[in-house]
Amino acid sequence: MRKDVRILLVGEPKVGKTSLIMSLVSEEFPDEVPLRAEEITIPADVTPERVPTHIVDYSEAEQSDEQLYQEISKANVICIVYSVNNKKSIEKVTSHWIPLINDRTDKDSRVPLILVGNKSDLVEHSSMETILPIMNQYQDIETCVECSAKNLKNISELFYYAQKAVLHPTGPLYCPEEKELKPSCIKSLTRIFKVSDLDNDGILNDNELNFFQRTCFNTPLAPQALEDVKNVVRRNMTDGVKDNGLSLKGFLFLHTLFIQRGRHETTWTVLRRFGYDDDLELTQEYLFPMIKMPPDCTTELNHNAYLFLQSVFDKHDKDRDCALSPEEVKDLFKVFPYMPWGPDVNHTVGTNEQGWITYQGYLSQWTLTTYLDVQRSLEYFGYLGYSIIYEQESQAAAITVTRNKRIDLQKKQTQRSVFRCNVLGDRGSGKSGFLQAFLGKNLQGQRRIREDHKSFYAISTTYVYGQEKYLLVMPDFDFLSEADLACDVVCLVYDINNPSSFEYCAKVYKQYFIDSKTPCVVVAAKSDLHEVRQHYSLSPHEFCRKHKLHPPQPFTCSVTDAPNKDIYTRITTMAMYPEAHFLPKLSNTGDGDSFSTFLQYSPGLRFTLHMAQADLKNSTFWLRASVGATVFAVLGFAMYRALIKQR
């Protein structure tokens, strides 16, 4: 809503423009009237809408045409004053003043007009019969008020209507000729209805209506008041109330009724509460609230954000199969002005056998968007109405900004939940296969992906010491940018069947990561094929031994079932503990059974030990897990099992 209102009074000489202003201010008719009143500012605390109001007079005797044009361009609303006992002043409304104002204002942003019939105390008849055809002819005319500066009739009402025409304009909402809401208004109110329909059953029940009422007007409706509202709808249309709840048609009818009865402010209060501006567009302030992003920090969704997303998922998962069909996805995004997810999303996150996005995949995509483009995530949460449903100041309340990565390295622990793995390798080395395997797709399934549906990312969850973490896997492009080097862990992928493949990995490592604190792992892709000797001066094993890296990890997605995912747990563990260069040998203290049980339920640690033992004779193993991490693993896994069992 505007922060102030500027009202300009124009009209023929001697119609009483100045008298109207002076009568408003002094609350009595002035004995002497100057040619023109000085600009008057009415403070916000004495106006009904709590907005400062500036009232500007015009005098043909004192001002030039150029000064008039300047005032017209600055005005938010223009009152064209005529004398009810002077037909010539009425004729001038259409022959002079309206054309003049239209010529000086932009067609797309016309100023609302108020027709003011002054000196009603001098006649016994009304001028409305003459004025109504004019109002019907010009859509910019908001209303007409007959008043008297002498006996103070309708003076306050005049300026209230002028203020209201600016703050709660009819034009964007309603078409008087058709006597119905405009398409843009219907679109906005439909989104508001869908956001407020918390169970997505197509009606607003009493609880939803009360939440809507409290959200917009800070007060609930009494049970009888709710019934009265529904009875009004029932009397006027057959399908406005269904199952004792308000349908979309009934909701739109109520707002039409408000506007027809001059209660525009009711509809505008609703629209503004849900983020709309005077042009019925969601405001930039609503969609993109300020959020501070220090360097070396990342953005994640917090617990409340995930709860909200879960409720949105449940709201649209009609068949309760824990996946969103294409129709359900389309229904979910009906509150958006465009479809935000393309076909690539189905190859970015986990899907079911039908290729539909699963619940976990759905959360993963939101996690990905928040991590890569927090502004886009804020925009999406705005469309879904997060700040309204969760009664927050803005959707920025859904975001957690992680602490600086350097602090994590110093403290040797992290509070982050999302980790990024950059996959680097020569063309054809198997990077895309490595991404899709993380989503459970074997080589046969990957070959069915259309070229224009392929994704640059893959994100899913892994469990490290009983903690659920998100791992984002993304390949490099033609060059390495600063962002590419700022990842949490690097996978250097080479094709064991291509003798020229490993050289790229070796050069990239020596150029960018040899002195870096970013952990690296070498992946020997296509391990189902025959391994050939690499043309590089050192074999991959020798290179890893020399640079104190893990030996190359064999990997293939050419399998019958889903590819093995142990390596992704390993990668996430490396990302969480980049400073842990060695994993100490854990001795058996006598309780061998409990230790083996611990390994059985700690796949990340079990895989780490397996890798260590496999290469213990030939290389120095660098991953180190603290005793604290081990204890946390036991406690974390116990809590995880309890939660899973409860669910």
Automatic annotation (TrEMBL):
MF term (GO), any: GTP binding
Protein topology in the membrane: Single-pass type IV membrane protein
Class of enzymatic activity (EC top level): hydrolase
Pfam family, any one: EF_assoc_1
SMART domains in alphabetical order: EFh (SM00054), RAB (SM00175), RAS (SM00173), RHO (SM00174)
EF-hand domain location: 304-339
Function according to Swiss-Prot or TrEMBL: Atypical mitochondrial nucleoside-triphosphatase (NTPase) involved in mitochondrial trafficking. Probably involved in control of anterograde transport of mitochondria and their subcellular distribution. Can hydrolyze GTP, ATP and UTP.
Protein name per its UniProtKB record: Mitochondrial Rho GTPase
Organism of this sequence: Cyclopterus lumpus (Lumpsucker)
Lineage: Eukaryota, Metazoa, Chordata, Craniata, Vertebrata
